[in-house]
Amino acid sequence: MLKRRLLATVAALGLVATGATACSTATAVGGGADKVEVAAAFYAVEYAAARIGGDQVAVTGLTKPGVEPHDVELTARKVASVALADVVVHLRAFQPAVDEAVDHQARGRVLDVSKAARLTAGPEHDHAGEAPGEHADHAGEAPGEHTDHAGEAAGEHADEALDPHFWLDPQRYADVARAIGGALEAADPAHAAAYRQRTTSFTAELASLDRELAQGLRTCRIRDLVTSHTAFGYLAARYDFHQEGITGVSPEAEPSPAALARIAHFVEDEGVTTIYAETLVSPAVAETLARETGARVKVLDPLEGLTDQSAGDNYFDVMRANLATLRAGQECT
Questions:
Q1: Considering all CA atoms of the chain, what is the largest pairwise distance in Å, rounded to the nearest integer?
Q2: Could you tell me the CA-to-CA distances from 166 to 17, 270, 274 in Å, in that order?
Q3: Could you give all domains of the chain from N- to C-terminal order, each with its CATH number?
Q4: Contact 252, 71 (CB under 8 A)
Q5: For 63-111, what is each residue's pLDDT tens digit?
Q6: Do the Cβ atoms of 271 and 329 come closer than 8 Å?
């Protein structure tokens, strides 16, 4: 079994080496020929796959910690991990290099989590009428079968960029976790009961986090979030905030002078006291805006990846650190 895998790895590397940039080494959580091999595109799906898979899986993260996931380039080894994986978990149209590897190299099961995540182009209006922390009853629907915007299937926004940051809404993240659990069950029916049990445990933790966020953010005096880029729309929608991004969904976008002037006027007119920079992206623009308006800068982590500077060792730690940051910055009682 081990020899077969080694041969397969060499063959895969030979197939993909000309189409990838060799600049780092792939690592896997766990390992061993008897485990389900999972290739996970970025931190949120990597973390969920590892939590739900437990000892039955070996998870390879395709995005190296500290690397901005939107523009990740895959090494030959990581493309090979896609080719060899029993299950590949990714988000279509979020990481072009991953999409290319999936389209040309994946041989196992492929789970695109975009349907389960219910991505929207206008996430702040996604839950109009719901109280913060409430979740519509989707009884009878399979994970990922929800629709948005009065029957329009999620993703049918041909001319607008979809917001990929579903994991900042614990309820959306829970739906994605269920879809990942289902994919692992299908790939490894012998351990289906274990996957179901761990999925239940993980989603229960997400439900508890959702309640903490809803309670902690209910009494904030300032309901406007001014952020470096619009990564926090789903969080804003869930907990009754209005997000104003200095740039759009892409963190690499440069704001125009007119856009900066507009945001500066917004900060002053609405009494915003905190501008949120983030990890993995330079805070220079946020700091400039803060100097011009008298606001302060705090870090709000979009959890696109963990680094040594992250305010915790996992998703739940960082989300609770974000809660504390928001309670201070939004003047919550």
A1: 67
A2: 32, 27, 23
A3: 2-212 (3.40.50.1980), 219-329 (3.40.50.1980)
A4: yes
A5: 998 888 988 999 999 999 999 999 999 999 999 999 999 999 999 999 9
A6: no
